[in-house]
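Need a sequence for this fold. Nothing fancy.
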C-alpha cells in the first residue's frame, strides 16, 4: 500500500538516525529452575521522531522491554543504545506522590529539570490544561478518578521534555471519548516536539491509530513476530474504515500468536 501524501514518516524528516536501538536483547528473570525468559533476541529500532506501537499478549515482555530501554533494569544479553537522549516513562500505574497536590506532582518534574521556582507553577498549569485537567491543580491524587490520575502522569511525563517517551498502556483505564481526545493531544505534542515514542497497548485499534509502525511481540519468550508499517494518512480517526481494516489484520496475527502459546 502506498502512503497518502499527508502521511508523515520519520524518513520524510530526513533523519533516519535511530533514537532507540535494541540489538539482540534478551532478558531472563531469576536463575536455574526458577528462570523466567521474558525476552529473547529482540532487535528493534525507533527512528528519531517515529511513533512505534508495541502489541503482544499479557506477559509477553512489553513492560520488561520498556524498563530496559528506560535503564531501570539491565538486559541479560544484547545491547541497548538510546544515543544519550533523555527518556521519560509513563507506567501502567500512574505512580503519583499522594501527599503532593496535582500541580506539585507536575512541578516536581520541572524542578528536576532545573526550571526556576517562579516559572514552575505556571508551566504546570499549562501542562494540566493540555491534558484537560485545568482547574484540578490544587487537588490531591486520591480525589481524582483513575483516568484523571493517568492524565496527571502524562502531564508529568511531558514536563520532563524528553527526547524519547516510553508509554506503558497509558490510556487503558480511560473512557473512549477522553481517550480519543488524548490521542489527538498526544499526536499533536509528538509532532510538535519531534518525540520518539514507544507505546505499549492491548488495544489494536489504538496501536494503529497512533503508530507509524505496529510491532507485534510473540510470547514466552517475547520476540518480534511482525512489524506492520501503518500507511494511513494523519490525522487518523480510530473508528475509520482504514484504521479498522489494518487493525483486523493485526488482530488476526495476534490471535495466531496467542493460540500458538495455548492461551
Ligand atoms: N521482576 C520480575 N521478576 C520475575 N519475573 C518477572 C519480573 N517482571 C516480569 N517478570 C516476568 O516476565 C514476563 C514478562 O513480563 P512483563 O511484565 O514484561 O509482561 P507484559 O507484556 O508487560 O504483560 P502485561 O501485558 O500483562 O502488562 C512474565 O512472565 C512475568 O511474570
Ligand atoms: Mg506490562
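Here you go.
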Amino acid at each position: 500500500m502506498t502512503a497518502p501524501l499527508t502521511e508523515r514518516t520519520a524518513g520524510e524528516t530526513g533523519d533516519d538516525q535511530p533514537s532507540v536501538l535494541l540489538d539482540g536483547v534478551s532478558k531472563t528473570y531469576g536463575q536455574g529452575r526458577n528462570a523466567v525468559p521474558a525476552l529473547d533476541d529482540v532487535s528493534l529500532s525507533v527512528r528519531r521522531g517515529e511513533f512505534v506501537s508495541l502489541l503482544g499478549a499479557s506477559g509477553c515482555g512489553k513492560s520488561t522491554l520498556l524498563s530496559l530501554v528506560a535503564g531501570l533494569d539491565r538486559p541479560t544479553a544484547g545491547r541497548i543504545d538510546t544515543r544519550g537522549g533523555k527518556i521519560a516513562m509513563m507506567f501502567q500505574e500512574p505512580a503519583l506522590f499522594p501527599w503532593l497536590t496535582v500541580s506539585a506532582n507536575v512541578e516536581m518534574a520541572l524542578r528536576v529539570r532545573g526550571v526556576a521556582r517562579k516559572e514552575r507553577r505556571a508551566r504546570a498549569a499549562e501542562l494540566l490544561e493540555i491534558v484537560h485537567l485545568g482547574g484540578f491543580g490544587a487537588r490531591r491524587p486520591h480525589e481524582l478518578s483513575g483516568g484523571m490520575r493517568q492524565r496527571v502522569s502524562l502531564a508529568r511525563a511531558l514536563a520532563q521534555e524528553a527526547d524519547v517517551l516510553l508509554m506503558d498502556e497509558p490510556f487503558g483505564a480511560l473512557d473512549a471519548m477522553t481517550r480519543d481526545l488524548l490521542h489527538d493531544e498526544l499526536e499533536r505534542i509528538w509532532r510538535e516536539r519531534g518525540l520518539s515514542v514507544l507505546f505499549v497497548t492491548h488495544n489494536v485499534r489504538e496501536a494503529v491509530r497512533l503508530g507509524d509502525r505496529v510491532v507485534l511481540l510473540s510470547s514466552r519468550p517475547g520476540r518480534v513476530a511482525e512489524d506492520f508499517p501503518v500507511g494511513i494518512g494523519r490525522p487518523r480517526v480510530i473508528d475509520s474504515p482504514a484504521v479498522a481494516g489494518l487493525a483486523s489484520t493485526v488482530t488476526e496475527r495476534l490471535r495466531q500468536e496467542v493460540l500458538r502459546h495455548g492461551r
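For context: Residues 205 and 247 are 5 Å apart (CA to CA).
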